[in-house]
Amino acid sequence: MSDELKHLVDEIGERSSAARVGHHSLPEAFDEDLWRVLETSGLTRLTSEQDANPADAAVVLGGLARHAATVPIAETDLLAAWLAGKADQEVPAEGPLTVAVADVEARDGRIVGTAADVPWPAVGPVVLAAMSADATFVAVLDPGSAAGGYNLAGEPRGDLPFDLPLDGVARLPRGVGDELLRRGAWARCVQIVGAFDAAVDLTAAHIRERVQFGRPLSAFQAVQHSLAAMIGEVERSRATTALAIAAANDHGFDSPRADFAVTVAKVAVGRAVAPVTTIAHQLHGAIGVTAEHQLWLATMRARSWADEFGTTGQHATRLGRMALADDDAWNLVVGS
Predict the structure, then answer these.
(1) Phi, psi of 140 (to 5 degrees)
(2) What's the CA gap between 145 and 222, in Å, rounded?
(3) In 10 A of CB 221, how many CB atoms?
(4) Cβ(150)–Cβ(156) under 8 Å?
(5) In the chain, what are the domains?
(6) Cis omega (within 30 of 0) on the bond before 27?
(7) Which residues contact 201 (CB under 8 A, 6 or more apart)?
(8) What are the angstrom distances between the C-alpha of 224 and each of 218, 278, 282?
(9) pTM, entire model
(10) What is the 3-state secondary structure (H, E, C) of the chain?
(11) pLDDT digit string, tens, across residues 75-118
(12) Spatial separation of the C-alpha atoms in residues 278 and 72, rounded to whole Å
């Protein structure tokens, strides 16, 4: 199924990308036409309603990220619909969803707080995960407002305040919230690798076509070395992300193996973002820094996504604690 799915996603992504040429804006607009195509194709609720596995979800997420799709596909399927199902909360069967995460303390029979940087807050219902020390409170909220907020790539982000009675929300174990964050980190790793692939393709094409001093840029040894370094970082990221995909696919997102693999991937992918995006822009020259250029859509997404669902530093700290807590650190190093 994966090869057919990959072909389908690439075809849809290419068509959507071609239709958006010359229509880039800040903030990015939700692509209603693309969403309708994805929904008709059964790709918007792939894991939550069609029992597809994480490997298939990764094909969709990576492919759409490669084409800079402006739809909350990870937020809808892998996060919001899954969380609503765990909490037995009703959400619309169609249309986009998003998810909000916040730390709270339950006081006086209420949970009060603000979820920061909610992705795509205005496109549809928001499934809230309000996390305390020992519980995850889940509720479905009305769409919020981005209020002009967006990340480096122009994707809408907004803060969402809430004040809810405890008897009006579902109370789940804290571990559910932890799994939600793990799923989000996993999705961002997959999406960043997709954005990396777009950056590599664009950079390789540019240095082949751009002529300087009578020779294509690709003929210069320094350019070749830079491109090789960039690709090396991308492949290191792909390898750790493939481990995370396999762990989630074989053992589930709630397993210790997935926890370890996603943590490793978030560290490796996050550390690759700076060199990959820097080299891509350097090899493109001045044209690469313009918001209108396709490269900007890939690199700025990678930089933005790297800090979501836990920063690289936070995951590196967590990985270090895993190593210290293991009686045999070598087992951790080799992934056993």
Answers:
(1) -105, 120
(2) 47
(3) 7
(4) yes
(5) 176-333 (1.20.140.10)
(6) yes
(7) none
(8) 6, 15, 13
(9) 0.95
(10) CHHHHHHHHHHHHHHHHHHHCCCCCCCCCCCHHHHHHHHHCCCCCCCCCCCCCHHHHHHHHHHHHHCCCCCCHHHHHHHHHHHHHHCCCCCCCCCCCEEEEEECCEECCEEEEEEEEEECCCCCCEEEEEECCCEEEEEEECCCCCCCCECCCCCEEEEEEEEEEHHHCEEEEHHHHHHHHHHHHHHHHHHHHHHHHHHHHHHHHHHHHCEECCEEHHHCHHHHHHHHHHHHHHHHHHHHHHHHHHHHHHHCCCCHHHHHHHHHHHHHHHHHHHHHHHHHHHHHHHHHHCCCCHHHHHHHHHHHHCCCCCCHHHHHHHHHHHHHHCCCHHHHHCCC
(11) 999 999 999 999 999 999 999 999 999 999 888 899 999 999 99
(12) 26
Report CA Rg, the chain. 20
- pLDDT single digits (tens) 117-129: 999 999 999 999 9
pLDDT of 308 above 70: yes
What is the number of residues in the chain? 336
The gap between the terminal CA atoms of the chain, to the nearest Å, is 29
Reference 187, options 314, 313, 60, 311; nearest CA is 60
pLDDT above 60 for 1: no
Determine the pLDDT at residue 148: 67
| pLDDT at residue 292, rounded to an integer | 66
Query: How far is 295 from 195, CA to CA, in rounded Å?
Result: 9
Asked whether the predicted pLDDT for residue 189 surpasses 60, the reply is yes
Name the token pair of 287: 């044209």
Average pLDDT over residues 307-335: 84
